[in-house]
Amino acid sequence: MSAYDALMAHARETEALKQVLGRLGWDQETVMPAGAAPQRAEEMAALETVLHARKVDPRVSAWLAAAEPADPVAEAQLREIRREHLRATRVPADLAAAIARTTSLAQGIWAQARANDDFAAFAPTLSEVLNLRRREAEALADGGDLYDALLDDYEAGESAASLTAMFDAMRPRLVALCEAVLEKGERFSRLDGHFDEAAQLRLATETARAFGYDFDHGRIDKAVHPFSSGQGLDSRITTRTDPADPFNCLYSTIHEVGHGCYEQNVKRDFLLTPLGAGVSMGVHESQSRIYENQLGRSRAFTGWLHGRFRESFDGFGVEDPEHFYAIVNAVRPGYIRTEADEVQYNLHILMRFDLERALVGGDLEVADLEAAWNDRFAEDFALQVDRASNGVLQDVHWAVGLFGYFPTYTLGNVYAGCLFKALKQDVPEWEEALARGDATPSTGWLREAVQQHGALMTPRAVIEGATGEPISVAPLLDYLEAKFGGLYGL
User: Coiled coil located at which positions (predicted)?
Assistant: First the structure.
């Protein structure tokens, strides 16, 4: 057996074990008994220890030195294995296990604190998580920027400096659009009534199928915080329901379907290899956001969805599809990132990006985080946060140690803007098909242009290869200004 073949056999087993660890996480967030949390933390720590040992196995270094790639796919496999091996060798095994154990426990502590609107009850746990991740960043950074070391887990090749430059270029037009729209006041009515939760889930399932989600290799479950999990032949998603707000269920589902379809559509040849998953969280988010927003909130698709609402919910009172489109896309002040409209969403992310950089860099202490959040939120959104669950406790990310993750949401929106511009040029029938509830032309283009490649290319190479243009914030901002300028008569 050649060095390359031996290395790939080792990598396939490692990737399979990663999927087992991911399944434990899925179980924890969906069906695990609450009292099982301490045992689950030990299970996850034990498996993380096994994974870490496989990543740092001295044979990996020897195989990498001896392996001779036969083609670009093999070169990419070696690139990804080398990157993971180098990062793992810098992190002590006991630290990797401690992070897995602590973040598993922290998730339940965060959930209870969120239910009680009690940040003080969560702060000690958050401090512990942050300190562990700082230690990891110090090991990885080798004297460099700690935040960049963590960001590299989610978006290889990016840095705080590169993202700051991108976000600074976006902010003036985002703020101007937001102010102009909000000055128009609440022009569109809200949905009113009780929307049966079983009917919501049936419609969510139908919508998932319309966007190409394969239920032979996936499933939908309920969770407090919607997420996707798994790869290849087992890619699962979750959603949530609110009897007063069916959009929460429908658009959470479409969003997670974007993630799930990305994983389902990676080339089968890459299954259980380092190339067998989405290349980065930014590219992943580009898929979920273009499914949810540019496609799912389009005038064409909401026209179809309006008809399905009338058939699914007794007494549904919105008679006009155009009015329904306006309701779906209404811009209103609000606290919650996941419920934010397209105009304000990225401002939520830019705030979190700044706060978590300050936390990781030591410029902001956890004890001061809630006050810093509330002050910044009032500055950016002209709203006083009324309770912790509407503020600093609304997201699970920091509880589970995902420092460096938040900016990939806005990066994903920028990528989605670039992709949508290209999609419209290449798929002239996209609107006509969506008006029939058929997303296949659009999602088929995304499958071929982005999803099938998995991690074969770097994140920026994937997007630029799909669009034929350099990445720019302009397509996203142009799209937002055209859409909401039209809705609000700007």
Answer: none
Neighbour tally for 213: CB within 10 Å: 25
Tokens 């598993």 identify what position?
104
Residue 223 has pLDDT above 90, yes or no: no
* Banded model confidence at residue 191, pLDDT cuts 50, 70, 90: confident
Is residue 380 a contact partner of residue 347, using CB atoms and an 8 Å limit?
Answer: yes
pLDDT in tens, 248-282: 999 999 999 999 999 999 999 999 999 999 999 99
Q: Nearest CA to 227 among 5, 28, 393?
A: 28
Closest CA to 247 of 182, 282, 297, 175: 297
Residue type, 315: G
Output the pLDDT for position 142. Answer: 86
Local confidence band at 51 (pLDDT 50, 70, 90 cut-offs): very high
CA proximity to 356, closest of 100, 112, 137, 58: 137
Q: What is the CA radius of gyration of the chain?
A: 22
Total Cβ atoms within 10 A of residue 234: 16
Share of the chain above pLDDT 70, in %: 100
Long-range pairs of 37-40 with CB within 8 A, sequence gap ≥ 24: 37/104, 37/105, 37/107, 37/108, 38/105, 40/104
Distance (Å, whole) CA 408 – CA 412: 6
Q: Is the pTM of this model over 0.90?
A: yes
Which whole number is the average pLDDT over 10-28?
A: 95
Nearest residue to 257 (alpha-carbon basis) of 232, 281, 239: 239
* Alpha carbons 469 and 466: distance in angstroms, whole number: 8
Catalytic residue list? 256
Strand order across the beta sheet in which 228-231 lies:
220-222, 234-239, 228-231
Provide the strand spans (E) within 111-218.
none
Tallying the residues shown for the chain, one arrives at 490
